[in-house]
Amino acid sequence: MTGGHLYFAYGSNLDAVDWGTYCKGAGADPNGMRPLGPAWLPDYRLVFHFHSASRSGGAADVIPSDRGEAVPGVLMELTDEALGVMDAKEGHPNVYEREVVHVSTMDGRTHPALTYRVTPTAQASKHTPPSSYYEGLVRNGLASCALPTRHLDAAVAGLGASGHSIGEVFVYGTLLSGESRHGHLMEFNPVVQDAARASADLLDLGSYPGLVPGAGSVRGELYGFADVDAVLASLDQIEGYGAGEPSLYNRVVLQVESAGGTQWAWTYAYAREGGTPIPSGDWREHRSRG
User: Fold this and answer.
1) Strand runs (DSSP E) across the chain, as ranges?
2) Residue 194 and residue 214 in one domain
3) Phi, psi (rounded to 5 degrees) for 165
């Protein structure tokens, strides 16, 4: 995607002023960090279990969680100099340490990126709420990118899985009603079912389609589930997805439009080359004409 270091920001570094203030004190160029766009970290949860003396309260961390949970943030590009500054700002490797994670961007692509996680020795034994100022840095950063803040609300309140999950799944191929695998989806008793669209392109891959980044519109259906973890565990196998592994499809978070408005949902984006474009973006219509 870029020639620099990809970095996923989810906490105070979402706020450009906060980063600029630190860089000024360190004698560094704040332009060494460049935002590339909103992104999601799948299967992780935002938490506050580290007390920061400089922040007068809790500072954010991300931890692995159940399928269906995700952390919103921004994918950044760091220069070599900025990476060194970020290491110092985050207290790497004693307080926070670098880790490579896989994040999805709004075009449905998945990227390996650095992020920082609190080391086990620096973690507090209990939930540590942030100051209102620190919370505001994160909240404003998310809002400026039109990202939801309910995940932050859940983390500030110290909630477990509640509030962190994305319970909707967007399907566009063999899982659609009337298609070969629809019955499998219905075994999980969806609580929501609605027609929906996603901004992307659709490819004919033979007996099934693939959603890929593009300027088109893909027609599909949106399903909501009470236990999305179980649904995604099953769909991951069907779609040939493994986190951080070469996969047939990548599980990503996309915005979709339905009668209920714009919302975030899981879907599976084709991760390989090839395929024939489907101009209509409608798999069932395409199949009926074929």
Assistant:
1) 5-9, 33-42, 44-52, 57-64, 70-78, 96-105, 110-118, 168-171, 192-204, 209-224, 249-258, 261-270, 276-277
2) yes
3) -85, 150
Question: Do both 129 and 27 map to the same domain?
Answer: yes
Query: What are the two backbone dihedrals, phi and then psi, of residue 195, each rounded to the nearest 5 degrees?
Result: -70, 145
CB burial string 127-158: b at 16+ within 10 A, e below: ebebeeebbebbbebbeeeebebebbebbbee
**Is 195 domain-assigned?**
yes
Hey, what amino acid is at 56? S
Its pTM stands at 0.94
Distance CA(27)–CA(177), nearest Å, equals 59
The domain of 146 spans: 5-156
CATH classification of the domain holding 141 = 3.10.490.10
User: Tokens standing for 15?
Assistant: 């706020």
- Structure tokens, 168: 């909707």
Instruction: Say if residues 269 and 214 touch (Cβ distance below 8 Å).
Output: no
Blockwise average pLDDT, block size 10, the chain, 290 residues = 86 97 97 97 97 97 95 98 98 98 93 97 96 98 96 94 89 97 96 96 97 96 96 96 88 94 96 96 91
